[in-house]
Amino acid sequence: MDYTKFQKISKMTLGEEKADLVIKNGKVLDVFTNEIHKADIAVCDGIIAGIGTYYEGKTEIDVNGHYVLPGFIDAHLHLESTMVTPNELVSMAASAGTTTFIVDPHEAANVSGASGIDYILDQTEASPANVYVMMPSCVPATSFDDNGCDFTAAKMKPYLKNERILGLGEVMNDPGVVYGDKKLHEKLELFAGRPIDGHAPFLPGSELSAYALAGITTDHECTTYEYAMEEVRRGIHVHIREGSAAHNLEAIVKGIVKNNTPTSEFSFCTDDKHIEDILRDGHISYNIKKSIKLGLNPIDAIKMATINTARCYGLKHLGALSPGYQADMVIVDRLDKFKVLSVYHKGKLIDSSSKPQIKPCPDELKETVHLAPVSEEAFVLPIKNKQAHIIELDSSQITTRHVIKAIGNTDNYQPVNGLNKVAAVERHKGTGKIGVGICSHYGIKNGAVASSVSHDSHNIIVVGDNDRDMAIAVNEIIKAQGGYTVVSKGKVFDTLPLPVMGLMSDAGYEEVNKKLKRMIKKAHNMGVLDDVEPFITLSFMALPVIPEIRIIPRGLMNTSKFELIKQ
Questions:
Q1: In what order do the strands lie in the sheet with 387-393?
Q2: pLDDT tens-digit map of 135-169
Q3: CA of 273: how far to CAs of 22, 65, 533, in Å?
Q4: pTM as predicted
């Protein structure tokens, strides 16, 4: 803190002048000592001036003995995956207590490169929260991907001096890390000494050690307690993910509780969480509450959402309630039920009733689907070997299983017995590439669902039980220049346009929510299984960096062996 600022604030610390704000009669959580003590909090210029007894402030808020906690931190998320504009998501989640967001805009970068990253930075500049950015590391994610941009180390250099750029985003190409891909290691070297996020599901021990050796500092892909501990033992900080599609918290937290594991190397993240889920359940507050219900000590759970994450990313002014820290505060009623009553960012009350601002989007980011209409012949799938490779979805996870099943020879497979066709259609450069395969445990009947959100390259992905409806669905996405659509018996039931890079809507979250609920309900009525979120689950079926099998525009891919599969 510079001398002039110290002179001003210290007068309030010492009680010589009234603080701008005094939060009175709170039960204040000290994350350094694990103590809860009754105290007032004095705030000046958005900074905590002091904690103790402060009788007067220019503004006084009596919290009547409720708990005062540091603002929560989401350790890893993709704002684009929420389908609404970035400031809308940040504003809604901030009202639920999350005052800091560590975002990775690799979705936007995969579609629009630097322009997509600049959009995320610009849209969140004036948000009612702290929004930091991790530079996308794998654009494209693998050499098999067909995306919109190749984002090299040279293109990253101009961002290094931006104070909101913390480090390198999730490094999904783990073989490239482990076996020394030169271009990838140029990026790792560029961010040496800074946080580098990982993405390493199920690496064998020696490969995981090589991954850590390369400088990876975090990972959010753990689905089991045992694997999380393998990472922690190698110095990798684990972000426990609980979002709209991936639910890893219960397995990991149960293991922590059962084994009385220290929690200093664990944090919380959402990765991808939709607005309707935030409105219903909360954001990082939900992770805390669920962990407490599973038996985790409430203070440990809160620290995993605050100081642990702040320290992981070197944010020395965040994560605690102490003099000199930013005045990001969450008021809750009880530590067991955990209801958020009010939230402060830089000492200002976040008004949950105010409508978030939607800033205009550059025109260049609204015309990103470059593809001619397709015919139903595009989805013909011949089976020549009697047996077919099938993508079997994992319940409530984004992982899949590689199943080989006897189908019989056919010139064009027609889905039966609960199976569906799934296809990925290249949409960035009009190459005409279309990969077609079979999936199980999705379940749609008499129709199709399609989306331009398909991680991480964001081509068009479609699933259905007949070629005609699949073609109608893809053509509807082309017409809308991105979005979600549901087609039933030859007709479009409804479409949610996502015109911003084919990823987001600028129509406002109310409209998005309204349409999404209607479309999800329709998809389930058409047979999509209850434990499948129709659109989020579909969006991950094209992600070639998650085990075990995926569909990409080049065809089926064995993601455990990193090779294409011939049917």
A1: 400-406, 387-393, 434-440, 420-425, 460-464, 447-451, 483-488, 491-497
A2: 999 999 888 999 999 999 999 999 999 999 999 99
A3: 34, 32, 12
A4: 0.92
